[in-house]
Amino acid sequence: GFKCGIVGLPNVGKSTLFNALTKTAAAQAENYPFCTIEPNVGDVAIPEPRLFKLAEIAKSAEVIPSRMQFVDIAGLVKGASQGEGLGNQFLANIREVDAVAYVLRCFEDDDITHVAGRINPLEDFEIVETELMLADLESLEKRLPALEKKAKGQDKDAKATIVLVEKALEVLRDGRPARSVEIDADDRKAWKGLQLLTQKPVLFVANVDEDSAATGNDYSKQVEAKAAEEGAKAVIISARIEAELAQLEDDEQAEYLETLGLEEPGLNRMIRTGYELLHLQTYFTAGPKEARAWTIPIGATAPKAAGVIHTDFEKGFIRAETISFDDYVANNGEAGAKEAGKVRLEGKEYIVQDGDVMHFRFAN
Ligand code: GDP
Prior knowledge:
Layout: E1 3-7, H1 14-27, E2 35-38, E3 41-45, H2 49-58, E4 62-64, E5 67-72, H3 88-95, E6 99-106, H4 121-152, H5 156-173, H6 188-193, E7 202-208, H7 218-230, E8 233-237, H8 239-247, H9 250-260, H10 266-277, E9 280-286, E10 290-297, H11 302-309, H12 311-315, E11 317-323, H13 325-330, H14 334-339, E12 344-346, E13 357-362
Parallel strand pairs: 1-5, 1-6, 4-10, 6-7, 7-8
Antiparallel strand pairs: 2-3, 3-5, 9-10, 11-12, 11-13
Helix pairs in contact: 1-8, 4-5
Bound molecules: guanosine-5'-diphosphate.
């Protein structure tokens, strides 16, 4: 599964957000099942209204959304990489995530201490990121001597790795994150293998006061500008409101959202943005037994998509009967789409599109 880590300074709203994520999912157990694997890991369903539409048309007995995990990575403070060093648990947690969400405090509240005594989301971001960059530097510098030794022994992989390590060290020493290095497609796998904390795609989460949930505020504008500069994504959210929303039944929730001027809970946006960040997309299978959403990387071919269901589907792939989501809905399901000539027979080279409703033909 795919994992998104939640990091930030203390008292910025991480736990509030994480708890809201887990509660929302728990409250909507039927639609969006949730389970806590460990105290800090939340397994959430991807909010996907299209899936429920398909299930309605196909009269599916069961609806199975795709999922991703959020990991609450607590325990980061300024100077953490010196002194005690980042805790091992902290490092282990963050190394295994696919993307990192930085929660940044964009709300003022005199009753809630800010560790640095002032509200400044961009400086907070720098503090956290600096700790992660220092941890990356340390881990690379530790690995280098052994790699050099291997490279002297004419180990080709070691030589290639050293090139990547040096690229990473160069930017890190310059105070920039590893994700600012451009990597050729051929080297991506080895690059990922370095397991650097600052190499993962980031999501900026601006946690604003309740009154600014719909509009954002001056602080969140700074965060958005920073995200744009980085080519990253930003989400504006009020953790307090999300916590309240998470307690409400569906109809009460809709009413409250309307009074706030919000179209949907911010958490849905956050989950979806996390999904986009990972360059993932969804295709569907739909029938009387179940309607189900499947997660695949953008650009995946039909056999690869089939392989997510079962490796046999990939190995024995013959073709995929494919209906776009819009055609499926417009023709009221598979039979109607067939009559209208909207079922395409796609082969091995087909690049699956987001929202495709698919039926795989395969040989054993
Ligand atoms: P963490 O240390 O980052 O996990 O922060 P918490 O989630 O524990 O939040 C710290 C305090 O800030 C708590 O008292 C929260 O209720 C409060 N808080 C979190 N989000 C908001 C918000 O959007 N507005 C206000 N006013 N307070 C918030």
